[in-house]
Write a structure and sequence with these properties.
CATH superfamily of the largest domain: P-loop containing nucleotide triphosphate hydrolases
CATH class of the largest domain: Alpha Beta
Number of domains: 2
Number of strands: 15
Strand order of the largest sheet: 3-4-2-5-6-1-7
Shape: globular
Radius of gyration: 23 Å
Distance between the termini: 40 Å
Helix content: 25-40%
CATH topology of the largest domain: Rossmann fold
């Protein structure tokens, strides 16, 4: 995967210790991204810092590397707070890859897994704890974990944690950890609530910003269809036939995600779903299956909008516009990651034009409106369970699974051809014949 690296720069000269430089080379990190280049020298010095950057720009390494180096030097504990279980696991994995070579232990403290396993892991006195706020507060209340040794506190995707209602827990944790600490806050946006937290709980933080708040990656091609709600499902199936790579579909609700995923399977595309009604094991299986190519399409609620490191997603479809305009930025940031090209298509009903204008005002960009292809009504969209068929031995088997045709050469399932012209493969999926774009009234 291509990354927005500073190709004429290296990690040398940023204050990184020789052993950690060697470890970076072993992990094939040779050139820093802009956020890494700017933030690592500051954080290695122990300064409080606020890092603002788009998703997919290397923020995890930007704070993990200096944090581990300072843990090794100061013998203090590092605590990382993350908004979702998936992101916490991803951050812990990075910490483990970097730190295990030096005997630095890390553990993830998240909901959805047995508490006794985490308590057992805490007995090993880990150097780094990566946690979701709710489970961490629970274990602190049960006196299973103490935060008095924390010397480095990192808030990852801080704005998302606030959006998810974690502000009381975050303030409780900030009031519990020692005042004599280094605090680093990383986010894609900078709402007033974060500014308030920074003023109260951080010591003259330095601000590093490599992209203005609300900005989207230049390499993401954005479009919107103005389409009645009743026709969105049919349009979705048309698009899945036209694009051949991996597709991430965002639904506003958990019920909607389940319904959409089933309808996609019913026409032969491999699909899975990701939302909070699924267990942690189910969510991890869905993500791993999407990463590996087992599932071509992932249908998700905003739980997957940030921090999920899935590379080479060709297309993001906003089946429903997000309730929060900021989430539009994070959703489409799942494609076009780290310098690669991507495509983002949104569906808006005729009565959502004002919501669309709010998003455009935030991103300071007008999203081109594309006419709905003719013949869209020819594609059936049904989320009802596929009829059961008899397998060998008389046992009923559920239909609607993956198409027996297998995957196409570009990595996607064979789908029905959509009306309105074919698209290219996984390199970006541009239209062969671009229809004249209509203006919104």
């Amino acid at each position: 995967m291509s990354r927005p690296e500073e190709k004429d720069k290296t990690f040398h000269g940023l204050g990184i210790a020789p052993d950690f430089l060697k470890r970076l080379e072993e992990l094939k990190f040779y050139h820093p991204t802009p956020i890494q280049l700017k933030s690592i020298p500051i954080s290695i010095q122990g300064e409080d810092m606020i890092g603002i950057a788009q998703t997919g720009t290397g923020k995890t390494l930007a704070f993990s590397l200096p944090a581990l180096q300072r843990v090794a030097a100061t013998k203090k504990m590092c605590l990382v707070l993350a908004p979702t279980r998936e992101l916490a696991l991803q951050v812990e994995e990075t910490m483990h890859k970097l730190g295990s070579a030096f005997g630095l232990r890390s553990v993830a403290i998240i909901g959805g897994v047995p508490v006794f396993r985490q308590v057992k892991a805490l007995r090993s006195k880990p150097h780094v704890i990566v946690a979701t706020p709710g489970r961490l507060i629970d274990l602190v209340g049960q006196k299973k974990i103490r935060l008095d040794k924390v010397g480095i506190l990192i808030l990852d995707e801080a704005d998302r944690m606030l959006d998810m209602g974690f502000e009381p827990q975050i303030r409780q944790i900030l009031a519990t950890v020692p005042e004599d600490r280094q605090t680093m806050l990383f986010s894609a946006t900078m709402p007033e609530k974060i500014t308030s937290i920074a003023r109260k709980y951080m010591k003259k933080p330095l601000r590093v910003e490599v992209a203005r708040a609300g900005s989207t990656a230049d390499q993401i091609d954005q479009e919107v269809f103005i389409v009645p709600k009743s026709e969105k499902g049919k349009l979705l199936l048309n698009l899945l036939g036209e694009y051949k790579g991996t597709v991430l579909v965002f639904s506003r609700t958990k019920h909607g995600a389940k319904k959409i995923a089933r309808a996609i399977r019913n026409v032969g595309h491999s699909s899975t779903e990701l939302h909070s009604n699924r267990t942690l094991a189910q969510r991890r299986k869905s993500l791993e299956g999407f990463k590996s190519g087992e599932f071509r399409v992932l249908v998700a609620t905003d739980i997957a909008a940030r921090g999920i490191d899935v590379t080479n997603i060709e297309l993001v479809i906003n089946y429903d516009l997000p309730d929060n305009p900021d989430d539009y930025v994070h959703r489409i940031g799942r494609t076009g990651r780290a310098g690669s090209s991507g495509k983002a298509i949104s569906f808006a009903s005729p009565d959502q034009k004002r919501d669309l204008q709010t998003i455009e005002k935030l991103i300071r960009t007008r999203i081109p409106t594309i006419p709905v292809p003719e013949g869209i009504k020819e594609v059936a969209f049904s989320s009802s369970a596929a009829p059961k068929r008899r397998g060998r031995g008389g046992h009923a088997r559920s239909g609607g699974g993956r198409s027996s045709g297998g995957r196409s050469s570009s990595g996607g399932q064979r789908g029905r051809s959509g009306a309105g012209g074919g698209r290219g493969g996984s390199s970006g999926g541009g239209r062969k014949h671009t229809p004249k774009r209509s203006k919104r009234s």
